[in-house]
UniProtKB/TrEMBL annotation:
Keyword flag Transferase: no
Molecular-function GO term, any one: monooxygenase activity
InterPro entries: ABM_dom (IPR007138), AI-2_Isomerase_LsrG (IPR050744), Dimeric_a/b-barrel (IPR011008)
Keyword Oxidoreductase attributed: yes
Protein name: Antibiotic biosynthesis monooxygenase
SUPFAM superfamilies: Dimeric alpha+beta barrel
Xref: Pfam families: ABM
Length: 96
């Protein structure tokens, strides 16, 4: 299992446009084979900051996710140009 935490820091005032794009993305990703969880969160303190929690069966599922046409259209071509900063960190769950 692989977990991706992504922090999106939007250009000032772009939070609503980013949220609109991410709302379109959510149901598409939730249907992906290998996607276990895809949670999009918007900061209560700063409406131009988002935290995404993504959990996939394995690294191959995460790679397939990034290669989809809708990822390219929504994230690469729509969301990323509206950001000042995008931070991504990968994790593996700790199990007993």
């Amino acid at each position: 299992m692989i977990v991706l935490i992504a922090n999106y820091h939007c250009r000032q005032g772009m939070g609503d446009k980013v949220e609109e794009a991410l709302r379109e993305m959510i149901p598409l990703v939730e249907q992906e084979k290998g996607c276990l969880q895809y949670l999009v969160n918007r900061s209560k303190d700063n409406p131009d900051v988002f935290l995404l929690f993504e959990q996939y069966e394995d690294e191959e599922a995460l790679a397939r996710h990034s290669e989809t046409a809708y990822f390219q259209r929504i994230i690469r071509n729509t969301v990323i140009p509206l950001l000042d900063k995008r931070e991504r960190t990968l994790y593996t769950p700790v199990k007993p």
